[in-house]
Amino acid sequence: MDVGSRTIGLAVSDPLGITAQGLRTLRRKNKKTDFAGLEQVIRGYGVVQIVVGYPLHLRSGGETAGSERMQIFAEELRSRFQLPVHLWDERLTTAEAQRVLRESEMTIKRRGEVVDQLAAVLILQSFMECQRSKQTSHRAEEPPA
């Protein structure tokens, strides 16, 4: 998820956890409506864990004002859906999404509609690649059977 004040960009992985695909962006209204929309996605796609973009300071990597809000949001997700929730560094994902979209032949209006979705895809893809990298390095450390 790429959680903003007005929208929540959404993405899900394929069943093997290799690629991330964007879903429709959720327009935020209020907490009740937001969580109802998220519940539809979680149930509809059989989500087993959640990755939420975690805003960190661009240069220092330290926490920002948004970091605390995302910690609270992540805790609400854990409590409501009883699923593991991972906070994942989202630095530069929106900028990268905007760069990719600028290079496409998409209209400015359409780019604005999908930037949060693409940011969510980049967050999830980065998380999955890191998880695969950890699994690969863990296997390399195991002695041969």
Characteristics:
145 residues, alpha+beta, Nucleotidyltransferase, domain 5, 3-stranded antiparallel sheet, two-stranded antiparallel sheet, 4 helices, 53% helix
| Count of the domains | 1
Shape: globular
* Overall helicity: 40-55%
Radius of gyration: 16 Å
CATH architecture: 2-Layer Sandwich
Describe the overall structure.
- The chain has 145 residues and is of the alpha+beta class.
- It has one domain: Nucleotidyltransferase, domain 5.
- Helices cover 53% and strands 16% of the residues.
- The protein has 4 helices and 7 strands, in the order E-E-E-E-E-H-E-H-E-H-H.
- The strands form 3 sheets. It has a 3-stranded antiparallel beta sheet with strand order 1-2-5. A two-stranded antiparallel ribbon has the order 3-4.
- Strand 6 (50-54), helix 2 and strand 7 form a beta-alpha-beta unit.
- Helix 3 crosses helix 4.
- The radius of gyration is 16 Å and the shape is globular.
- 23% of the residues are buried.
- The model has no long low-confidence stretch (mean pLDDT 88).
Could you give the topology of this structure?
Elements: E1 2-3, E2 7-9, E3 11-13, E4 20-22, E5 26-27, H1 31-45, E6 50-54, H2 65-81, E7 85-89, H3 93-103, H4 108-141
Parallel strand pairs: 6-7
Antiparallel strand pairs: 1-2, 2-5, 3-4
Question: How do you describe this structure in short?
Answer:
By secondary structure, the protein is of the alpha+beta class.
